[in-house]
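user:
I keep going back and forth on a fold encoding question. Separate attempts, laid side by side, tell us more than any discussion would. Would you put together a sequence-and-structure record for a protein of your own picking? Write it directly below this note and I will take it from there.

assistant:
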Amino acid sequence: MGLLDGKVVLVTGAGRGIGRDCAIIAAAQGAKVVVNDLGGGVAGGDAGDVGPAQEVVNEITKAGGEAVANTDSVAIKSGAEAMVEQALDTFGGLHSVISPAGILRDGMFHKMADEDWHSVIDVHLNGSYNVTRAAINHFREQEEGNFVLFTSTSGLIGNIGQANYAAAKMGIAGLSRIIAMEGEKKNVRSNIIAPFAWTRMIATIPVKDEASAQRVERMKNAMRADQVAKMAVALAAPSCETSGQIFAVRGNEIFLFNQPRPVRGMARLEGWEPDTILSHALPSMKADMTDLGATASVFPWEPI
């Protein structure tokens, strides 16, 4: 018996990387899988092909599973709707959406082109909206369904040169939280994962010094896509009751992230003025403020 026996799962960006392993592992756990992949490059915006998605389908069917390829774009609402319709038409149902599809267009914010901002927002944030919106009413009507969306430590913690990506990934955190809250009474769950894994997207990040090169090599060897995919499949399983949470997967480590809550409060009976805020409130709160360190400063140890 597999964790997903009798279930239908849509996996976006499933031609390569984390999405590919999500599709293969979901199928191994008994799911019928819609393997979505546009077939384009890491930066997006180019013409794709069915090749990557079909290769994953072939691998699944060769192993005795059931899968079908889809090449629609998550960035287009009609594309997301077509994925859901294909699942319903081909397999007669849909129970989970796992959506790691994404692109990168990195650059310092003061040099960022409008196109690079909008493209990343369209694929990541609007793409997450499109696929969840396309499936949500079906899930609510059958009173069963779940979403596994993907955030990033670039948003949760921060990373220089990724303002567009970080903004999109933090937006996904808010989207998932509200879906989970609104879906609780209808048995509709939503969780997000911040993955640490060597993928095509990670490979595009410039390596500027020896320390960065060594860190990238450690990531390549110790943090694999299948480790992230196993977490995604676990969250998609009907036996999972977890919802509204943020996880990170880093090699063999799984982290539960906190979510924004007040960490320090101050009141002034006579009210605050700009000068008293500067002289009293902000200095008193300084010890509890989050520093500007990037992800490497929060996870400085070697992956396990």
Notes: The two ends are 30 Å apart (CA to CA). The mean pLDDT is 94.
